[in-house]
Specification:
The chain contains six helices and four strands, in the order H-H-H-H-H-H-E-E-E-E. It is α+β, with helices and mostly antiparallel strands.
């Protein structure tokens, strides 16, 4: 089953684009946090077409909205990772140029990448 691969690589996007600098600005962190929150909401609403658009380009090339729905419906770890992400949305976010991360606990992290159309989560580990 390829579901566990997705679960290690789920990605997100923000609805707006920010420029990158060496030191993250508060608005960059806010946009990343918004992207994460939107992804959580999309999955909770079971709007997997929107959640799929929140994935990084690499993940969108490997998954479909239908596959996301199936993975979140059948794989208990997917819901665990989503719950960890939701609980950690207030934690500090590290933004470095075109990558961002949010620690979700011991050896757990959400990773995002900045693409042309905004921040996309590249992994939920």
């Amino acid at each position: 089953m390829r579901g566990p691969v997705l679960l290690a690589c789920v990605g997100l996007s923000a609805c707006c684009h920010t420029s990158t600098t060496d030191a993250p600005r508060a608005d960059q962190v806010a946009v990343v946090r918004q992207a994460l929150g939107e992804f959580v909401s999309e999955v909770e609403r079971r709007d997997f077409a929107a959640a799929w658009r929140s994935l990084s380009a690499d993940l969108r090339a490997r998954y479909t909205p239908e596959r996301l729905s199936r993975d979140f419906g059948l794989e208990p770890l997917a819901l665990e990772r989503l719950a960890r992400l939701k609980a950690g949305l207030g934690a500090p976010i590290v933004v470095e140029r075109e990558a961002a991360s949010l620690e979700l606990g011991r050896d757990r992290v959400a990773r995002l990448v900045l693409e042309a159309d905004g921040w996309k989560v590249a992994a939920l580990e």
